Amino acid sequence: MVLPAELRERVQAEAKKRGLKLSPAIRALLIERVQEIDDAEQLSRAEEWQRAQVWAVWERMKAGDHDEAARQEIDSIFDEALRDAPRRRPR
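The structure assignment produced for this chain is given below.
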């Protein structure tokens, strides 16, 4: 793979820090970046879900439904969400 000189120097410096040759360092950096992108997308979906939940509660409150949730019910919802969440693969 042809890299611009400045980028090649930066990657070579990172390879040296990690005790790797250039190709394995490029592969490791690529894998790490793809994982960061996946993590960011997962976080974004979680934040969207949270916003939707907040808006739903807000709409119910505006409509006069002021029921309170028990701590156990809240814990149960979070436990279920964590169970259903995709697991991160080890790097």
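Interim note for the steering committee: The mean pLDDT is 88. The helical segments are 5-18, 22-62, 71-84.
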